[in-house]
Amino acid sequence: MKFCWSTIQVKDMDESLRFYEDIIGLKVNRRFKAGPGIEIVFLGDGETKIELVCDENGKDVNIGTDISWGFEVESVEEKMDFVRAKGISIESGPFQPNPHVKFFYIKDPNGLKIQLVENV
Asked: Can you give the CATH number for the domain in which 8 is found?
């Protein structure tokens, strides 16, 4: 068995796409309408994808607080400067729990925690 994708409901597809394309660096793989008022976008160019679903009829999104998505970055310090320049607040960190990894957290436009990780 292999993991295919992770899905989140989003409040605003365009705002979410700007975040995942501009900040995280993911590319749109597929974008399509899935019925009246429902749009789906798959992001990522590897084996595993992220699926964003926007339902115009149900804008209430409850992400929760105990889940996060992690993305690898070249440099935590450079990425922190980059996200701050884009007006995005650092939620917590940076942390370095061992000599091999550093990371920090931001939130996506829907409140999902995003962990940006540097493998040292």
From this structure: 3.10.180.10
User: What kind and span of H or E run contains 119?
Assistant: strand 113-119
- The set of residues, in sequence order, having a beta carbon less than 8 Å from that of 73 and lying 6+ positions away, is 79, 116, 117, 118
Residue 83 domain boundaries = 65-120
pTM comes to: 0.88
Please determine, for residue 33, whether its predicted confidence score (pLDDT) is greater than 80: yes
Q: Indicate whether 80 and 97 sit together in one domain.
A: yes
Element (H, E) at 72: strand 68-72
Cβ atoms of 120 and 110 closer than 8 Å:
no
Average per-residue pLDDT in the chain?
Answer: 92
Percent helix / strand / coil, the chain, rounded to 5: 20, 40, 40
What percent of the chain shows pLDDT beyond 70?
A: 100
Measure the CA–CA gap between 37 and 50, rounded to whole angstroms: 20
**pLDDT single digits (tens) 69-105:** 999 999 999 999 999 999 999 999 999 999 999 999 9
User: Number of folded domains in the chain?
Assistant: 2
